[in-house]
Amino acid sequence: MMHRKQAPPDQTNAENYYFIKQMQNKTAMVVMLDDGTELHGWVEWYDRNCIKLNRTDGPNLMIYKHAIRYMFKEEELRQRRRRNRE
After folding, report:
1. Which domains does the chain have, with CATH numbers?
2. What pTM, to 2 d.p., does this model score?
3. Please, are residues 12 and 21 in contact by the beta-carbon 8 Å criterion?
4. To 5 degrees, how large is the angle CA 33–CA 59–CA 13?
5. What CA–CA distance (Å, rounded) separates 52 from 29?
6. What average pLDDT values come out for the chain (86 residues) when binned by 10 residues?
7. Which string of DSSP letters, residue by residue, matches 9-67?
8. In what order do the strands lie in the sheet with 68-73?
9. Pairwise CA distance, residues 86 & 72, whole Å
């Protein structure tokens, strides 16, 4: 009798875990949009289609996920700039 490999799960919940962790810590984030716009703030909430980014330097925004190229912690940007100066 042959054993078939199980298909990988449709949901890993990695996105949920990541967003919940950043929301709880109010982690300062950098959100890069597909059009090259760079936004700074922290994620207040998210759902399947969008995130709400709270900002201190402008109005809070609801951003559709399909418009986000990538996002990362602002601290990573500071560390990268520090390394480039050294």
Report:
1. 26-85 (2.30.30.100)
2. 0.78
3. no
4. 50
5. 12
6. 71 87 96 97 96 95 97 89 81
7. PS---HHHHHHHHHHHHT--EEEEETTS-EEEEEEEEE-SSEEEEE-SSS--EEEEGGG
8. 61-64, 50-54, 38-46, 29-33, 68-73
9. 22
